[in-house]
Amino acid sequence: MDHVSSMEEQIVRQRILKKLEEVNAAAKKHLAGVQDHVNFTLQKAYFQCAYECFDRRQNQEGINSCVENCSVPVLSANHVVEDEMAKFQERMNRSLMVCQDKFEAAKVQKMKTDASQELESCVNRSVDDSIRVLPHVVEQIKSTIHMN
Asked: Which of 3, 37, 62, 92 fits a 20 to 30 Å CA distance from 55?
């Protein structure tokens, strides 16, 4: 590989990394409302519920059971968010693996001329598709955790 090709590949790699950062930024933006709901609304309800569990007429086991029941909505919501985002990540990873496989095949076949640009183009499409899907993933999460 000559020096120019190596430099070109590095530039393409940097642009791909920048593009991948767009997914993280979009996910943070789209999930902000959900995170706020979980971290403040549900957590606040949990602490208020748990506070009410401390009744001198209850034994320790009753208090523990009550507090545990109070945590169910928060734990369930966190599980839904983690599960849906893991599925989103897995779909994106599979899409990016297809891009990588095409790139590797082009290198092996010595069709290197446009392989880096094709990789970048494929990654851009994959990332853009993932970003387009994010609002639907977030709506699914909101629906599942009964967030208005």
From this structure: 37
The C-alpha atoms of residue 130 and residue 26 are separated, in whole angstroms, by 10
Which CA distances in Å does 84 have to 13, 78, 138?
Answer: 28, 10, 8
Q: How far is CA 141 from the centre of its chain?
A: 12
Q: How far is CA 47 from CA 39, 52, 115, in A?
A: 11, 9, 55
The pLDDT of residue 54 is 92
Share above pLDDT 70 across residues of the chain, in percent, rounded to a whole number: 93
**Can you say how many angstroms the Cα of residue 19 is from the centroid of all Cα atoms in its chain?**
15
The C-alpha atoms of residue 45 and residue 133 are separated, in whole angstroms, by 31
Neighbours of 113 (CB within 10 A): 10
Residues in the chain, how many? Answer: 148
Helices marked H in 37-114? 43-53, 60-108
Residue 50 amino acid letter: A
